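Question: what's this shape?

___
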Amino acid sequence: MDIPPLAGKIAALSLSALPVSYALNHVSALSHPLWVALMSALILGLLFVAVYSLSHGEISYDPLYAVFAVFAFTSVVDLIIALQEDGYVVGFMDFYTKEGEPYLRTAHGVFICYWDGTVHYLLYLAMAGAICRRKRYRNFGLYWLGSFGMSILVFLTGNILGKYSSEIRPAFFLTIPYLLVPCWAGVRVFSQPRAPTYCTANTVQEEQRKGLLQRPADLALVVYLILAGFFTLFRGLMLMYMFYVLPFCGLAAYALTFPGCSWLPDWALVFAGAIGQAQFSHMGASMHLRTPFTYRVPEDTWGCFFVCNLLYALGPHLLAYRCLQWPAFFHQPPPSGPIALHKKQH
C-alpha cells in the first residue's frame, strides 16, 4: 500500500484553527449556546468557501477533497480541546466545551479528541495529498471510515443516553452533517476501484488449495478471532462490540478458513480503524483522572489491562495487513472445466 504525500495547502489552512479559536474564546457573546452553534456553523461555511476558491480543480476531480479539508480544520480544533482539557494550553476553546458540547470534557471525550486531532488529521492530509496528485487512497479511506464511524456512534450514544443527555446544546446538532457526510464519503470510497494485486490464476489456485493447517499465519489469526470473540463478551463497550465486532470476528474466521471471500480485505480495514479508535479511547479514558475513581482501572492492574487491550487492538490491524499483502486466498476462484477451456481456445 503506497503512502500518498501530505497536502501542504490543507495543513496550512487547518492551522488557522489556532488563531480563530483563540480569538473566539475572548468574544463575550459566545457565552450563549445558540451563538456558539451559529458561529461554529458560520466558520465551517466560510472555510468551505475558502477551500472551494483555493482548490477548485481538486474538488472538481474529487469532491471529497473539500470534506477532508474541512474535517482537517475540525481535527486541529479537537486537538486544541484535548490539550486544553488536560492543562497543556489555556484560553482557546473554553467557550465551546462549556456552551457547545460539554461531553467533550469527559475522559472519553478528551481521548476522542486526541485521536481525531492526530490519526484522523494525518489521514485527511494523506488523502487530500493523494487527490492532488491523482493517486489512490482507497485503503486509507476505508480505515478512516471505520475509525470515524466508531467515534461518531459512541459520541452520539454517549450524548443521548449518558448523563449529559439533559445538557444537549444547539451545537450538538452540528453532528448531523458529521453523520451524513461520512455516509456519502463511504459510498464514494467503496465505489473506487481496488488497487491491482497482480495475482495470476495459478497463484490463486495454489493458495486456495491449502488447508488452514498449511497456513500458520491464518491459523493464528483464526485463534485470535475466536479468543477476541470471547473477550468481547466480558468487557466494556458492550453495545458497540456485541452488535458489530463480535459478528465480524465470526465472519472473518470463516473467510480465513474458506477461500474466495473477496469482501474481507475491505472490511478488515474498516474494522481495524473502528477497533483502533475504540481501544485508544477506552484505554485512555479508563486510566484518566477525569474518570470517577470507582470506574477507573486500579494502578496495580495497569500492566495486565494495557497488554490485553493492546493485543485486542493489534489483531485487526494484523488481519488487515495480511489481507493486503497476500490477497490471493480471497480472490474469486478462477473458472474451471469447460468454461475455462473455452476461454483458452479463444
Remarks:
- Residues 338-346 have pLDDT under 50 and may be disordered.
